[in-house]
Specification:
The protein is mainly beta. The chain has 2 helices and 47 strands. The strands form 10 sheets. Strands 37, 38, 39, 40, 41, 42, 43, 44, 45, 46 and 47 form an 11-stranded antiparallel beta sheet that branches. Strands 1, 6, 7, 9, 10 and 12 form a 6-stranded antiparallel beta sheet that branches. Strands 2-5-13-8-11 form a 5-stranded antiparallel beta sheet, with no helix packed on it. The radius of gyration is 26 Å and the shape is globular.
């Protein structure tokens, strides 16, 4: 994706400021722009569409904008519009999605900085708000939406054009019947553009993202520039990722591949992004591993879907087995999902097997809904390589089972249906994994946009479930994949995203999707599947640790102020007499993530209804009471995400995307009694890109 980097931009300010920081992850707090007073001019007339709809705005062409464009609606199917005041420009309200047109503001002098709210469809070339020079109409900046009605604050450094006559242009050249419109509100200039009531907006917008590899800046510093980009989680610099894939430890390095679209922050023709790590914590970016088949057809989204990796001990190669997806609308008569193989000996060159496809399609019956996401595992029942593939028939999800017939893993024989649901967990089971832990077997998969586990028995052909639960009780976890490292640990990574949500605020910065920290899997005391952060994340510690030790909390205490850290809590359940205690994360006087533990119901609830631009809601889980009556919580806070691990193995993951730079406070509150803490420990974390 191309990025716009004007001269003397906020990118430059961020780069200069970054060099002054001892800890690069603090770059999310930009310096208060000292010269916003120096060049502060009045912005366009009717900047929030409060004065008579489009008064002082000019419809230049088309029918997309007109007298009905200003709307007073407050909410839509996905929540609030995030408007300011009573009215905003809703690009759909005049003449529908497919209408096109162009709207101009009144002419005004550019200040040193400006900001506005933008929403609607994503199409950088056909749907955008732009700033143009009055003398020749040259577009200096532009910003598209995110395929969500909710608007997000964009900040532009316009100091290079301060004092020049400019105007805003709202461009809709999209004839799309879905997300073919653009929304706009609350245009601000000068110091007013930077914040509200003493709070400062996070600086967002595609214009603020330097080109990848620009100025010779290190990955650590480059990834620190974006104030909502996680610092110790893998994200694509630009583009989209979803499922983790091909997880393995190979030649002493952990391999993480991801489903990847480099061309847009949306799902698209699937590539495989690739990073590796010496410790499953600190990542190094490698070239894209797998590419879709070449095509000149923009409608052809064929690509390389999810798969798994095993180490070939006879050759030393890494062997990847994956789903080859073909768009049958563009390739009539083709099989949509087959299984294919590639190998690599150096981690950068991947050779496709001449025997592809190694499985030419689903079994004759029972896979009408899907046939994808092969996961290879060693079956100790008969000492063979087996493979589970996600499937479904009718209303029921299924896992299909195959066995390797040769040592090269290029010849496979169908065994049968290893497991089948009752319809309550979805009609397709995606990304299945089947693994032994202790004396049990665990099957986990994605269905109904949730991650489920089942613990039970497996005899080499059939899995029998004894217990079922959620892999993660939060809103942002899907497509988890497991692998065994060289130390014999059962490790996993999950995609910190989900399909139903429209909340991908980072799209305004050109990227979407993140992978979780590496987790270790174990069987819980109640027989379920639990997870915890791997021990190596302690190596991310960066800066002085705040340790409050043993403390009774009455009322509210402030633990610290940071948005990249690990918060570890130990609570004496027997000594506590408050009805509940609440931990506030990403907190300011405008927003916060609220994590509440109720002593009576033993319920941990995560509330993001007032946490930022991310998915709003409340999620909860009952936490098993430990034998020692000490509740432990391990909380990972990373710019725009939170991962919570309870001592019993419960995990909760959410992405939140705070609006304000000051939303970094961490507080604990107990009302109506005391919450007795054996330990409160806050450890600042550094970057995952230090390799």
């Amino acid at each position: 994706m191309k990025t716009i980097t004007p001269g003397h931009s906020l990118t430059t300010i961020l780069l200069l400021y970054l060099n002054l920081l001892a800890t690069p992850t603090l770059a999310s707090i930009i310096p208060r722009t000292a010269d916003c007073h120096k060049s502060h001019y009045t912005g366009p007339l009717n900047p929030s569409f409060e004065n008579g709809g489009l008064a002082n705005w000019t419809v230049v062409s088309g029918t997309a904008f007109g007298s009905s464009s200003a709307s007073s609606e407050t909410t839509y199917w996905g929540g609030p519009f995030n408007k300011v005041g009573n009215s905003f420009l809703w690009g759909i309200s005049q003449d529908g999605e497919a209408a096109v047109g162009e709207l101009h503001s009144s002419t005004f002098k550019a200040s040193s900085v400006m900001s506005f709210l933008v929403g609607g469809g994503w199409d950088p070339e056909s749907l955008y708000v732009g700033l143009a020079t009055a003398k020749d109409g040259k577009v200096l900046f532009k910003q598209t939406g995110t395929n969500d009605e909710a608007m997000i604050r964009i900040v532009w450094d316009t100091s290079a054009y301060a004092g020049q006559d400019v105007y805003l242009t709202v461009v809709d050249k999209s004839t799309a019947t879905s997300w073919g419109h653009i929304n706009l509100d609350d245009v601000r200039t000068g110091c007013d553009a930077l914040g509200d009531k003493g709070l400062h907006f996070n600086v967002l917008g595609q214009a603020n993202q330097p080109a990848h590899g620009s100025s010779g800046i290190s990955a650590e510093k480059l990834y620190a520039l974006d104030p909502i980009r996680p610092q110790f989680h893998y994200t694509p610099y630009q583009g989209w990722i979803n499922d983790p894939a091909g997880l393995a430890e190979w030649k002493g390095r952990h391999q993480l591949f991801s489903q990847f679209n480099p061309d847009a922050p949306f799902w698209g023709p699937m590539h495989w992004a690739h990073v590796d790590s010496p410790d499953a914590v600190h990542w190094r970016e490698l070239p894209v591993a797998l590419y879709p088949p070449p095509t000149t057809n923009a409608l052809d989204n064929s690509g390389r879907f999810t798969g798994s990796a095993v180490v070939d001990n006879s050759t030393g190669a890494l062997h990847i087995i994956f789903t080859d997806f073909t768009n049958i609308e563009q390739h009539p008569g083709a099989v949509p999902e087959t299984v294919a193989s590639v190998t690599t000996t150096d981690g950068t060159t991947f050779l496709y097997s001449p025997k592809n496809p190694i499985i030419a399609g689903p079994p004759p019956s029972g896979s009408s809904n899907a046939f994808r996401d092969p996961k290879v595992f060693w079956d100790k029942n008969d000492n063979s390589w087996k493979m589970v593939i996600g499937s479904g028939e009718g209303s029921k999800g299924r896992v299909q089972l195959f066995v390797a017939k040769d040592a090269s893993l290029l010849s496979w024989e169908y065994v049968g249906v290893a497991a089948e649901g009752d319809g309550s967990t979805g009609n397709i089971w995606e990304c299945p994994n089947l693994l032994p832990i202790d004396d049990k077997w665990v099957l986990f998969y994605g269905g109904n946009s949730l991650g489920y586990y089942e613990v039970g028995t497996y005899d080499g052909a059939k899995f029998v479930s004894e217990k079922i639960g959620l892999l993660d009780a939060g809103p942002d976890s899907y497509a988890m994949q497991w692998y065994v490292d060289e130390a014999g640990r059962n490790l996993a990574i999950t995609w910190m995203g989900n399909w139903p949500t429209s909340k991908w605020p980072s799209r305004v910065n050109g990227w979407a999707g993140a992978q979780s920290i590496t987790r270790e899997l174990f069987l819980r005391e109640d027989g379920g599947l639990g997870s915890k952060p791997i021990a190596e994340i302690a190596s991310l510690a960066s800066g002085p640790v705040t340790s409050l030790g043993k403390k009774d909390v009455h009322g509210t205490i402030k633990v610290g102020s940071t948005n990249t850290a690990r918060l570890q809590l130990e609570v004496d359940l027997k000594a506590s007499n408050a009805p509940a205690f609440t931990t506030f994360l990403y907190s300011s006087n405008a927003e916060a993530v609220v994590l509440k533990y109720d002593f009576g119901s033993k319920t941990l609830s995560l509330d993001t209804t007032n946490a930022g631009y991310g998915q709003a809601g409340t999620w909860s889980a009952v936490i098993a009471t430990p034998k020692n009556n000490v509740l432990s919580l391990d909380i990972l806070i990373d710019r725009s995400s939170v991962e919570i691990f309870a001592g019993d193995g419960t995990a909760m993951t959410a992405t939140v995307f705070p609006r304000y730079q000051e939303s970094t406070d961490i507080k604990i509150e107990a009302v109506g009694g005391k919450a007795a803490f054996n330990s409160i420990k806050l450890t600042p974390f550094g970057s995952t890109w230090k390799v």
